[in-house]
Amino acid sequence: MIKLRIMGIITMLCSLLGCTAQTKGFESIGAEKFEQIIADTAKVIRLDVRTAEEYAEGHIDGAMNIDVLKDDFKDNAITRLPKDKTIAVYCRSGKRSKKAAGILAKQGFNVIELDCGYIGWTKADKPVTR
Asked: What are the boundaries of the signal sequence (predicted)?
C-alpha cells in the first residue's frame, strides 16, 4: 500500500514537472542554428534585449533593440514586433533573453532564443556590427 502511494506521488511529480518544462513556449538554440535561422530576414526579426549602451557597443547586424529591463518592454514589443514573423531574441549571456522570450511567447509570438547570448555569439566568431 505504501509502495503504491509513493509510486503515485512520483508519477504526479513527474507529470507536473514535465508539463512545466513544456510550457516555456520558445526554443533556446546555439549560435550555429541561430545564425542559420536569422539568415531568413523575410521571416525573422532579430531582437537585442540588452541596454541601449550595450547595443551601441556591438550587436548582431540588423537587430532592433528593446531593453527587457525597462518597465515598458512588453508594451513596446507588442507595438513594434510583427506576430507573423519569428522573433530571434538575444542578450549578453542568455539570462535576459530567456526572460524576454518567455514574455513574448506568452503574448503569442513565435520565439527562438540564443542560448549562449552575445558573448557566445562573438566567441563562435559570428559577425557583429559595431
From this structure: 1-23
Strand order in the sheet with 44-48: 27-29, 110-114, 86-90, 44-48, 64-65
Q: How confident is the model at residue 4 (pLDDT cuts 50, 70, 90)?
A: very low
* Structural domain spans, the chain: 26-123
Q: What is the pTM of this model?
A: 0.82
Q: What is the pLDDT of residue 24?
A: 79
Nearest CA to 73 among 97, 41, 55, 45? 97
36, three cell numbers: 542559420
Q: Which fold has domain 26-123?
A: Oxidized Rhodanese; domain 1 (3.40.250)
Residues paired with 14 in a beta bridge: none
Q: What is the pLDDT of residues 65-94, one digit of tens each?
A: 999 999 999 999 999 999 999 999 999 999
Q: Any long-range contacts for 48-54 (C-beta under 8 Å, 24+ apart)?
A: 48/89, 48/90, 48/91, 48/118, 49/73, 49/89, 49/90, 49/91, 49/96, 49/97, 49/99, 49/100, 50/91, 50/92, 50/96, 50/118, 54/92, 54/118
